[in-house]
Specification:
By secondary structure, this protein is α+β, with helices and mostly antiparallel strands. The protein is built from 13 helices and 18 strands. α4 packs across α6 (231-252) and α4 (124-146) packs across α13 (401-409). The chain binds one RNA strand of 76 nucleotides through β1, β2, β3, α2 and β11.
RNA sequence: UCCAGCGUAGCUCAACCGGUAGAGCAUCCGGCUGUUAACCGGAGGGUCACAGGUUCGAGUCCUGUCGCUGGAGCCA
């Protein structure tokens, strides 16, 4: 079986051949060190003059950063080594010599790194983020799959807006104008009537001219939708899902969190139940903290930061004014000015990561709402049909993957949470 | 779209009141038998974003353009 650095301990005391890339090298006369990176970890390979072929000793000096190589040697426990193991090399073979590598081990600016994003991904921090992102996705899908959800998946090319009309990317579809999806939710509602509990997970697109650390033009969203579930049950599902994913990362990705210097005590607190406060209580909380806000206002980035920092775990704010929320949300029967919805604000000031609601399930009410919002009724005919034929109470939410990854990793900018971020007017590489 | 800040060597940054363009890293040459972003000595490397203006003299001051970064609004 192939030997990789992540599992090098199994080869202790034995000879092994490792393939990878030269991360760094150092030399001290008759001793040369090649630090090898193989995609699973990093290990130092020691070359002693006279104990390796002259060609290999020479190559250990002339090989360039990020050249691909194969190193053979004796795996040895070494207390001084960061990973606990070292390779006493017996041979070094060049696979491909790298041209002078633009990204050094020193500091670089954001503009330069983004221009070289395809290479930046090889660095230790980006490698750690990629693995944690993958773990979060797997954890959340495991949670849903293990709880009887059926992966439905929804179209990316859609004939009409999901929520508004100003934020869509238009696409030419054989002469007809269609749009890249900004949500799969409406389709999810139709799928839920088939399988009861469904979810979709895929890229979504917003053409807003947003230029902040929390925004991408293309981001991945996980959207569960459940038949016969009310708002309270929806919030319970969201907190269970998020808590499960965070605890999984803590259990399985400790080394990567350490690479990112993430304070894991903050993550350990992320267990259900999460605090739930009403919109009006949130407004009062903000006013007590000196924010100028009045009932009816939506929360901006500042307000979200204050709310997120007020608790040791994510907080769920529910019953927002219907006027500032989407047309498909069900109104609170006790007070029809309020929507049966919630937002989950991550702790530590990372902002909104989940937005959900109980959906409007009364046919007449939904038709009225579509007219009020000046949406084209013809485009929503199929959506209204879901109410026409055996309507049912149902709820769901959308979880922004990249914001969740940023929060779990403790990253200050969302651009590092996806391999190739699509930023405002930036699509290279 | 609006507001603010920044564009100097391959990279990260200096250059005081307007007076000859600098350092570290990277690259190349040399040294060192245990280095940990190794270290030590040497060399090469510049249209100071671009265009105009003020001035005896502009990297520095003014105007415009372009680019980048952060924020607002909107949202996940």
């Amino acid at each position: 079986m192939e030997t990789v650095i992540e599992k090098i301990g199994a080869s202790a005391g034995k000879e092994a051949t490792l393939t990878g890339w030269v991360y760094n090298k150092r030399s001290s006369g008759k001793v040369r060190f090649v630090i090898l990176r193989d995609g699973t970890g990093v290990i130092q390979c020691v070359f002693l003059k006279g104990q390796v072929p002259d060609a290999a000793f020479e190559l250990a000096d002339s090989v360039t950063q990020e050249s691909s190589v194969a190193v053979t040697g004796l795996v040895r426990e070494e207390k001084r080594a960061p990973g606990g193991f070292e390779l006493t090399a017996t041979d070094l073979k060049l696979i491909s010599l790298a041209e002078p590598y633009p990204i050094t081990l020193k500091e670089h600016g954001v503009e330069f790194l983004m221009e070289h994003r395809h290479l930046w991904l090889r660095s230790a921090r980006q490698h750690a983020v990629l693995r944690i992102r993958s773990e979060i996705i797997k954890a959340m899908r495991d949670y849903l799959d293990d709880n009887d959800f059926v992966l439905g998946d929804t179209p990316i090319l859609t004939p009409a807006a999901g929520e508004g009309t100003t934020t869509l990317f238009p696409v030419d579809y054989y002469g007809e104008q269609v749009y890249l999806a900004q949500t799969g939710q409406l389709y999810n509602e139709a799928i839920a009537a088939s399988v009861r509990k469904t979810y979709c997970f895929g890229p979504t697109f917003r053409a807003e001219k947003s230029k902040t650390r929390r925004h991408l033009m293309e981001f991945w969203m996980l959207e569960p939708e459940v038949a016969f579930l009310d708002l309270s049950g929806d919030m319970a599902l969201a907190e269970e899902l998020v808590a499960y994913a965070v605890q999984r990362v803590l259990a399985k990705r400790k080394p990567e969190l350490a690479t990112l210097e993430r304070d894991t005590t903050k993550l350990e607190a992320v267990k259900a139940p999460f605090p739930r406060i009403s919109y009006l209580d949130a407004v009062k909380l903000l006013q007590d903290k000196g924010k100028e806000i009045k009932p009816g206002d939506d929360f901006g980035g500042d307000e979200e930061t204050v709310l997120g920092e007020a608790f040791d775990r994510p907080v769920m704010i529910h019953h927002y004014p219907a006027a500032i929320k989407a047309f498909y949300m069900k109104r609170d029967p006790q007070d029809t000015s309020l929507a049966l919805c919630f937002d989950m604000i991550a702790s530590e000031g990372y902002g909104e990561i989940v937005g959900g609601s109980q959906r409007e399930d009364e046919l007449a009410e939904l038709e009225k709402r579509i007219i009020e919002n000046k949406l084209p009724p013809e485009a929503y005919r199929w959506y209204v049909d879901v109410r026409r034929y055996g309507s049912f109470p149902h709820s769901g939410f959308g979880l922004g993957l990249e914001r969740t990854v940023a929060w779990v990793c403790g990253l200050k900018h969302i651009r590092e949470t996806i391999p190739f971020p699509r930023m405002l007017e930036k699509v290279y590489p």
